[in-house]
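S1.2 Input.
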Amino acid sequence: MLTDLWLGEGGVAEVIGKASGASPQEVADGAVFGTPTGRFTTPDEVADLTLFLASDRAANIAGADMTIDGGFITTV
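S1.3 Output.
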């Protein structure tokens, strides 16, 4: 997800970059390379799904897993 945990100072991309000799941007780009959307999920996208699931419009959704990963996981 597009947060400081991944992309901020001291985040995953920076730590992996230092260990591998890559820049944080290269690490981030590699993390989403090959996914259908080619980008990280935004916090707003997660919030939108949460609001939908909490609404009456989703009243009959039960026992479902929702994955917001831009197609990173390719199985159903």
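S1.4 Remarks. The chain is about 45% helix and 0% strand.
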